[in-house]
Amino acid sequence: MRIDVVSIFPEFFSVLDVSLLGKARQSELVNVHVHDLREWAAVKTDGTPDAHRTVDDAPFGGGAGMVMKADVWGRALDDVLQRGGVLVIPSPAGIPFTQALAADLAEAEQIAFACGRYEGIDARVAEHYEAKGFRVLEVSLGDYVLNGGEVAAAAMIEAITRLIPGFMGNAQSIVEESHADGLLEYPSYTRPASWRGLDVPEVLLSGHHGNIERWRREQQVRLTRQRRPDLMADHDGDVAQ
Ligand code: ADE
C-alpha cells in the first residue's frame, strides 16, 4: 500500500517512524510519503509568485476563521493522488471512522490524506475529485474538534496499516480485539494470579477451554452493554441478560 499525506505540518508525521508502523515502512509493506502543502503555494491564483506561500483565505459569506484554498489543494492533489487512489479528508463533519472502515481502506492501493487546518478545505475540492471518479471520504475521528486533520490522519493510518496482511506478528490478536466482532474486548490478566489482594477470575486458571470462552464472551457483552450500549443492538440475545 502507498499512503500520501499532505499537510502544512509535515514534521508532525515523524510519529510514523517509530513503533510497528516504522518497521512496516522499512519492510515496504507500506510506503508513506509526507508532503508540505506550501510546496504548491508558491504562486498565487493569478499565476504571480507568492512569497508568503498563502494557503488560506476568508470565507465567502463571512464568519470566523479562514478556509484553505481550493487552487492550492488542487495543484497538490493533482500531483499526489494516483489513479484508483482514495482521497481521505479528515473532518469533524465527516462520517465516523470505524474498524469496518479501517478494514475497507486496508485494501486500497493508495490513500491520500488531505489534512486541513482552520475552518477546513474549500468544499469544491472534495466535489471536484469525486466528479473525476475518485473515491472521496470526509472522515471524523469522533465527536470532538481537533485543531486540524493531522492527529486524525495519524490515528487512521495506524488503524488501517495494522490490518494489512503480514503487518501484525499474530493475526489471531486482530480477530480477538475490541470491535473486531462489534463488541469490546474481554479483560486480560497475567502473572501473578494474586496482586494487592486482587485475584484473577478463577475460571481463567481452570484450564477448561469451553468455560473460559463462555466467560470471555459474557465479559464482552457485560462491558459493551455498560460502556457502549449503542453497539449492543446487533448483539441482544447473544447471552442471557
Ligand atoms: N479535524 C478536526 N477535528 C477532527 C475530527 N474530530 N476528526 C477528524 N478530523 C478533524
Adjacency order of strands in the biggest sheet: 2-1-6-5-7
Give the strand content.
15-25%
N- to C-terminal distance: 44 Å
Estimated radius of gyration: 22 Å
Number of DSSP E strands: 9
Oligomer: single chain
- Shape verdict: elongated
Query: Main beta sheet, described?
Result: 5 strands, parallel
How would you portray this structure in words?
- With 241 residues, the chain is an alpha/beta fold.
- The protein is 29% helix and 17% strand.
- The protein has 7 helices and 9 strands.
- The strands form 3 sheets. Strands 2-1-6-5-7 form a 5-stranded parallel β-sheet, with helices on both faces.
- Helix 3 (99-105) packs across helix 5.
- The mean pLDDT is 93.
- Adenine binds at residues 90-92, 140-142, 144-146, 148-149, 152.
Record the SSE blueprint:
Elements: E1 2-7, H1 19-26, E2 31-36, E3 56-57, E4 67-68, H2 70-80, E5 86-96, H3 99-105, E6 110-114, H4 124-131, E7 135-140, H5 150-161, H6 171-176, E8 194-195, E9 198-199, H7 209-227
Parallel strand pairs: 1-2, 1-6, 5-6, 5-7
Antiparallel strand pairs: 3-4, 8-9
Helix pairs in contact: 3-5
The structure holds adenine.
